[in-house]
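Project channel, design review

CF: Before we commit to the Pedobacter frigoris constructs, I'd like one complete example in the thread so the newer folks can see what an input/output pair looks like. Taking DUF4133 domain-containing protein.
RD: sounds good, go ahead.
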Amino acid sequence: MSSVYQINKGIGRPIEFRGLKAQYIGFLAGGLVGLLLLFAALYICGLNLYICITVIGGLGTALFMTVIRMSHKYGEYGLLKKNAKRSIPSALVSRSRKLFTHLNISVCQNR
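CF: and here is what came back for DUF4133 domain-containing protein:
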């Protein structure tokens, strides 16, 4: 008897939710939790409810627009690549030969 297997066509593809890819879903979730905590802090401090809602609404809109723009601009790994490229030094400076005199030369000769 032959078996029929269904193939999951999403294997190896990045997680995507309504246009947001990979880590941007986490960024948005973290931002929303931060906005919730900010709303609670503003309300507990005694700020007017309508002012709290206006501030959080504006910040929430800015958060959504920024995360969606970054998701479309950089894609799944682009933001990670940008941050990694920024941490690469422009030049390596060695002021002494001490580092090179202690290298094991026998490893290079075996090749």
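RD: helpful, thanks. The longest helix spans residues 49-74.
CF: Strands lie at 16-17, 20-21.
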